[in-house]
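Below is a filled-in request sheet from our internal design queue. Each sheet records the structural input a requester submitted and the sequence that came back. We keep these sheets so that new team members can see what a complete request looks like end to end.

REQUESTER: design group, bay 2
PRIORITY: normal
MODE: inverse folding
CHAIN LENGTH: 116
BACKBONE (tokenized):
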């Protein structure tokens, strides 16, 4: 469903969803990880139900989009949301990761900007 907002009132949208474990090998990112997309709409507002649906497509790797790592996933999601709303979008992922070859659990922030 396409949502719109008034252009007469400057608006900033920030939408967050939890990230599932996407990698079938490492199990990363771990529970507690999240993705936030932010943008200033010019008319079109990204449907809230679509972000979780987009994210779920990357579980076990997004075969049709040839995306296999967290960094590319965040970049790809920024581009996909930008394509829907027609304005620049920033996607920020706060990830909890377990290094695949051992070591202490870490946090990592990945930020990608898809310019309009």
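RETURNED SEQUENCE:
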């Amino acid at each position: 469903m396409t949502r719109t907002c008034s252009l007469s009132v400057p608006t900033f949208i920030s939408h967050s969803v939890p990230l599932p474990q996407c990698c079938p090998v490492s199990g990363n990112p771990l529970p507690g990880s999240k993705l936030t997309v932010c943008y200033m709409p010019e008319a079109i507002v990204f449907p809230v139900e679509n972000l979780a649906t987009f994210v779920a497509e990357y579980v076990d790797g997004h075969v049709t989009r040839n995306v296999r790592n967290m960094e590319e996933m965040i970049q790809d999601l920024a581009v996909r949301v930008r394509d829907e709303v027609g304005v620049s979008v920033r996607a920020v992922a706060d990830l909890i990761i377990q290094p695949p070859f051992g070591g202490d659990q870490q946090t990592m922030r990945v930020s990608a900007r898809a310019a309009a």
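SHEET NOTES:
- Helices lie at 48-56, 70-85.
- The CA atoms of residues 86 and 101 lie 40 Å apart.
FILED BY: M.R.
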